[in-house]
């Protein structure tokens, strides 16, 4: 039996097909607990859930979580691939929920042997992935909040912006909250500012006189807003930036604790210039790929640091891969770029790529491919990364596999 599940936000459509492509059952269900429970019970009447694979056009969500928990193998079908297959069932490419569930079941029946199945991921890896993704979202929100604060200072008080170069640092936010307007800082002297900085452990190595000169040298704003309104606008934005910084720090602590408890961390923790947060990102994003990959080259390809070859007739092009796990690629390329500053081996791979006229992003992806082979070998052998052994052998050897395109 083969199951096609056409999912949506409010209702779903399910079709059950046998080996002869005959639809033996079909129904529509609401996206409620009663609807999902009734569907899982109805599917069990058709056989053992382990023998009832389900094709669905997504890799995540409540339904995708519930199906493996009930024992069903889940076969994710990319919407683009499914759309390209529609002419198989008619030139009009007609689309209905009932028709799509039938087509998904039929696609699974004929091509299921070529499609990968979702495998349960270690819960610790899922926790790390959720934490690191939340942190990335908060960092993005923090950047937006600080940029908005910069824009407000440009129009309301450029002198406050000029005092400290880093607007998102604690001391800069403290200064703007204490002195949110030119009037509030009018009586500020170099001695008072130096004393204020000393109480907050300022490490910028700028004297109070230099900081005051920066403030006075900045252009004057032409704003016609009152002092109270200006102070409110700047203080509220400072509070927003500070609150997001606090959430990022809280997530950092949770990520560090989760990394320390993860079994993959000891294998990779000594890699050059890899911090705890970046290690958490790598484990959380490439961990699921590493678990299901059948070869090193598949692992590298799914991480998104290899090009895509398109060849047809006389045309041949090797281009950037867009369809991939973007967060996994960002995590591993961030580490690769940092590693070249702490490893001669990594630096050589990068400089050799640059010497071949590769742009910086391309050279970093080439280095990332080399590091992914190291990660694959560490995971395969269950041995931690050893810089001395790695550099002595020049590379970590993997099983004999076809080389990737440059």
Descriptive notes:
With 406 residues, the chain is α/β, with parallel strands linked by helices. It folds into 3 domains: 2-114, 2-Layer Sandwich (Nucleotidyltransferase, domain 5); 126-257, Orthogonal Bundle (Helix Hairpins), CATH 1.10.287; 265-392, no CATH class. The chain has helices spanning 33-44, 62-69, 79-85, 97-111, 123-156, 158-163, 170-178, 190-199, 208-217, 227-260, 265-268, 276-292, 296-303, 326-339, 344-355, 360-381, 387-392; strands at residues 2-6, 11-17, 23-30, 54-56, 74-76, 308-312, 315-319. A hairpin with a 5-residue loop joins strand 2 (11-17) and strand 3. The longest helix has 34 residues, at 123-156. The model is unreliable at 396-406 (pLDDT under 50).
Q: Radius of gyration, rounded?
A: 28 Å
Count the helices. How many? Answer: 17
CATH class of the largest domain: Mainly Alpha
Computed structural class = alpha/beta
- Along the chain, the helix and strand elements come as EEEHEHEHHHHHHHHHHHEEHHHH
Low-confidence stretches: 396-406
Number of strands: 7
Q: What is the first-to-last residue Cα distance?
A: 43 Å
Helix content: 55-70%
Q: How many individual domains?
A: 3
Please tell me the CATH architecture of the largest domain by its name.
Orthogonal Bundle
Global mean pLDDT: 88
């Amino acid at each position: 039996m083969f199951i096609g599940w056409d999912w949506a936000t409010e209702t779903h459509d399910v079709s059950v097909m046998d080996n002869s492509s005959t639809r033996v059952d079909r129904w529509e269900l609401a996206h409620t607990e009663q609807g999902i429970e009734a569907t899982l019970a109805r599917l069990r009447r058709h056989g053992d859930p382990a023998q009832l694979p389900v094709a669905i056009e997504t890799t995540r969500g409540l339904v995708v979580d519930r199906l493996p928990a009930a024992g069903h193998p889940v076969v994710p079908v990319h919407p683009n691939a499914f759309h390209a297959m529609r002419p198989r069932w008619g030139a009009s490419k007609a689309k209905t929920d009932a028709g799509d569930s039938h087509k998904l079941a039929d696609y699974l029946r004929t091509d299921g042997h070529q499609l990968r199945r979702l495998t349960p991921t270690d819960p610790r890896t899922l926790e790390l992935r959720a934490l690191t993704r939340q942190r990335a979202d908060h960092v993005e929100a923090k950047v937006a909040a600080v940029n908005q604060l910069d824009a407000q200072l440009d129009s309301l008080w450029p002198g406050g912006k000029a005092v400290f170069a880093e607007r998102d640092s604690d001391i800069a936010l403290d200064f703007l909250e204490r002195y949110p307007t030119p009037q509030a800082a009018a009586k500020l002297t170099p001695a008072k500012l130096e004393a204020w900085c000393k109480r907050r452990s300022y490490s910028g190595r700028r004297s109070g006189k230099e900081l005051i000169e920066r403030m006075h040298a900045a252009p004057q704003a032409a704003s016609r807003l009152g002092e109270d309104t200006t102070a409110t606008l700047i203080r509220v934005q400072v509070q927003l930036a500070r609150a997001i910084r606090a959430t990022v720090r809280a997530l950092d602590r949770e990520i560090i604790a989760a990394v320390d408890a993860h079994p993959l961390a000891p294998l990779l923790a000594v890699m050059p210039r890899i911090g705890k947060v970046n290690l958490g990102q790598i484990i959380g994003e490439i961990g699921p790929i590493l678990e299901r990959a059948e070869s090193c080259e598949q692992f590298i390809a799914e991480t998104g640091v290899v090009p895509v070859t398109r060849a047809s007739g006389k045309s041949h092009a090797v281009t950037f891969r867009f369809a991939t796990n973007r967060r996994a690629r960002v995590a591993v390329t961030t580490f690769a770029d940092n590693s070249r500053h702490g490893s001669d081996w990594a630096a050589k791979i990068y400089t050799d790529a640059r010497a071949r006229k590769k742009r910086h992003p391309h050279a970093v992806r080439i280095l990332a491919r080399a590091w992914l082979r190291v990660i694959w070998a560490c995971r395969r052998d269950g041995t931690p990364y050893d810089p001395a052994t790695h550099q002595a052998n020049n590379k970590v050897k993997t099983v004999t596999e076809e080389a990737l395109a440059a």
